[in-house]
């Protein structure tokens, strides 16, 4: 019976969502397999998780310039990226090694960059024999995502391969199917809308900015409402209750606006939508692509959000809406020119079809004889 370990982290829901998709795929591929989980931040010590989440939220919401500076420095100064990764890898790797020694997995799957750093350290110090892969759930890899001593670094699109190799030229990089749960797939929009009580003939714009509801969600909702009378915005606030409270008066005044908190029906809402409006390009963007839905990147958050938006746009899978009015312009264009919408939807579907199944990446990883760690 195969034993698989998922190394993730509760930093929002994206990394765990990727882990759940891999968990499902493992059990489809190897019925009877056991899947254990380790939360990287919990392993790193008491209080590390809350501290890192506070730093991340504060940087994105209050000091995006600082977050952008750190992100650009990782790219600009190779020594800085290497030193940062080695420091985190040594911290995390020593602690992960104790847990992994107890679990004795046959396969290790990482969905979180700091966890991958720890696994890379373990491999370099001959403490990790099982085949090990990292699923890069950001559309655009950055230096903290990619590691030369892991057996596979799996990116989300062919256009993500060059930046991954720029991060670490010796890394082994492959393209994965989007790591999303099987419910995220092309489906019947009309049936989904009827199931959810949404108008069948409207232009549905699903606004989802992750479980934390980051960014200019209120402005997105207002701009969508004013863009076209056929537009029905469906705003998912996730666990951001203050955001939901702020939007409630607008929803009461404008019945077209549908307001949701946390929901377990994201797949149905994505299938029901015409477009998905988001700002980071992580799990939400991948779920949209898996359902064949165009993505509108509204005022992307700093650093990785901006990089994801630019690479998705280059791949023909997203429209970037940076300034006031651009989101409304994009929606009006897609309504007026359905061939543009169709081309983007077909590009998403074609990409997902070309990558095969998530199980293919697992088979490839399981068939690898782990690379020997460097001796120096």
From TrEMBL:
GO terms for biological process: glycolipid biosynthetic process. It is found in: Membrane. Transmembrane segments: none annotated. Its main location: membrane. Residues 32-179 form the Diacylglycerol glucosyltransferase N-terminal domain. It comes from the Bacteria. GO terms for cellular component: membrane. Gene3D superfamilies: Glycogen Phosphorylase B. Residues 205-348 form the Glycosyl transferase family 28 C-terminal domain. Keywords: Glycosyltransferase, Transferase. InterPro entries: Diacylglyc_glucosyltr_N, Glyco_trans_28_C, Glycosyltransf_28_UgtP. Pfam families: Glyco_tran_28_C, MGDG_synth. GO terms for molecular function: hexosyltransferase activity. Belongs to the glycosyltransferase 28 family. This is Glycosyltransferase. It comes from Amycolatopsis pithecellobii.
């Amino acid at each position: 019976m195969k034993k698989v370990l998922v190394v993730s982290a509760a930093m929002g829901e994206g990394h765990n969502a990727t882990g759940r998709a891999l968990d499902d795929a493992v059990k489809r591929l190897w019925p009877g397999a056991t899947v254990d989980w380790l939360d990287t931040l919990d392993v790193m010590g008491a209080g590390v998780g809350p501290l890192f989440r506070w730093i991340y939220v504060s940087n994105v919401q209050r000091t995006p310039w600082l977050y952008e500076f750190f992100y650009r420095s990782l790219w600009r100064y190779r020594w800085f990226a290497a030193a940062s990764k080695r420091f985190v890898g040594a911290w995390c790797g020593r602690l992960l090694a104790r847990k992994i020694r107890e679990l004795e997995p046959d396969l290790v799957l990482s969905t979180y960059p700091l966890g991958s750093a720890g696994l890379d350290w373990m491999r370099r110090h001959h403490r990790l024999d099982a085949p090990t892969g990292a699923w890069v759930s950001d559309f655009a890899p950055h230096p903290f995502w990619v590691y030369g001593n892991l057996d596979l670094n799996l990116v989300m699109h062919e256009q993500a391969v060059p930046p991954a190799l720029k991060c670490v030229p010796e890394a082994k990089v492959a393209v994965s199917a989007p790591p999303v749960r099987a419910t995220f797939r092309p489906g019947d929009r009309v049936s989904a809308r009827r199931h959810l009580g949404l108008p069948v003939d409207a232009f549905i714009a699903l606004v989802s900015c992750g479980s934390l509801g980051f960014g200019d969600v209120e402005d997105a909702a207002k701009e969508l409402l004013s863009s076209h009378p056929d537009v029905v915005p469906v705003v998912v606030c996730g666990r951001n209750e203050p955001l939901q409270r702020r939007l409630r008066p607008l929803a009461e005044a404008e019945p077209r606006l549908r307001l949701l908190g946390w929901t377990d029906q994201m797949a149905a809402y994505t299938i029901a939508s015409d477009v998905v409006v988001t700002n980071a390009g992580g799990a939400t963007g991948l779920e949209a692509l898996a359902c064949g839905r165009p993505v509108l990147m509204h005022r992307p958050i700093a650093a990785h959000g901006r990089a994801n938006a630019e690479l998705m746009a280059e791949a023909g899978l997203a429209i970037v809406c940076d300034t006031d009015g651009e989101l409304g312009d994009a929606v009006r264009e897609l309504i007026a020119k359905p061939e543009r919408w169709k081309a983007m939807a077909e590009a998403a579907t074609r990409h997902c079809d070309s990558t095969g199944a998530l199980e293919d990446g697992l088979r490839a990883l399981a068939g690898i004889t782990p690379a020997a760690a460097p001796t120096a």
